Amino acid sequence: MSAPAIGTLNNSPKQGGKSASAWLKLRELPVTVALVVLVVVTAVINPLFLSPQGMKDLLLNATIMMLLAAGQTMVIVTRNIDLSVGSILGLVAFGTGSIFAANPNMPIVLVVLIGMVFGAVLGSLNGLLTVWAKVPSLVITLGTLYVFRGLNNAWAGPKQHFAGDRPQAFGNLSVNTVLGMPIITLVAVIVVIILAIFMIGSRPGRDLYAIGSDPEAAKLFGINVSRRVFTAFLINGALAGLAGVLYASRFNAVGATTGSGLELDVVAAAVVGGVAIFGGSGTVIGATIGAILLNTITSSLTALRVDKFWQQAIVGVLIITAILIDRLASLRHAKNLREKEGRNV
């Protein structure tokens, strides 16, 4: 396949205005509409749902998932997946508690940087094993999920770090607000915007879409696939580390089980937000909206006193629907390409 074909291989936002608009309608618009409808209906039934405290709780509940889904998007776009993010978050969260327990006067910014570096190291291990061993990332990260979780169990044991062990200023990150938005949520939004600009507006970010569309064609186009995939895992790990630090600020206790089970929720948020599970398309913004939607569903159904089983069932239906929409969009795109080629013959 010749190099010029790379431009036709993906549905990334780097295309012209017309294709970007069509892409937006197929992917981000439906989940946004679903989120708005869900909030409005719930607020009509339960007016307290949109009270200032209710909105604050919604944002806080979605903050951690927003960061994790944004990082996971970078990996999924390259036709990979990282199932270890929950374990990375748990390790960093307990490490954060341990740092403050040993030195309560440690600057918060320094703790955040330490957490992100720790997460980046763990994420880079996933990336290195994936690109070096040429083993599917699903297998690699399933293994590191248990390795990292085992390390956290050995480190933490029965011990937990509670809110009283941390500085008041650190806990206030989840209490204080700026323009009605919790500080940790504001941090997450800023990070998501930066990552979205990187994915759309930079050559390395656009390369990730090309890799996900067709890795072999990406190589012919001169893209260093191994380096780009490794970088995606590293950044994803750093964001999981940041999420771990913010988790320690948000919740009252962190221990050996912190972050367990989050990995599947993260993948679900990305897929529901329009990130193609087979790579090549999707955006950080869409994944973030997906994360907010899934958390809002849980909060809405809880406010409406719906059984937890139905909450899980609805999330499952959303995932299946998102995959079907993605499949239909891919078939439509392929059909359009064939028709265009037929007219050019």
TrEMBL record:
Name of the molecule in the record: Autoinducer 2 import system permease protein LsrC
A matching Pfam family: BPD_transp_2
Record note on quaternary structure: The complex is composed of two ATP-binding proteins (LsrA), two transmembrane proteins (LsrC and LsrD) and a solute-binding protein (LsrB).
Keyword Cytoplasm belongs to the record: no
Domain of life assignment: Bacteria
Compartment(s) where it occurs, according to its Swiss-Prot or TrEMBL record: Cell membrane
UniProt topology in membrane: Multi-pass membrane protein
UniProt keyword Cytoplasm present: no
Role: Part of the ABC transporter complex LsrABCD involved in autoinducer 2 (AI-2) import. Probably responsible for the translocation of the substrate across the membrane.
InterPro entries cross-referenced by the UniProt entry: ABC_transp_permease
Species assigned in the record: Paeniglutamicibacter terrestris
Residue ranges of the TM segments: 29-51, 58-77, 83-101, 108-129, 135-152, 173-200, 229-248, 269-297, 309-329
Sorted UniProt keywords: Cell inner membrane, Cell membrane, Membrane, Transmembrane, Transmembrane helix, Transport
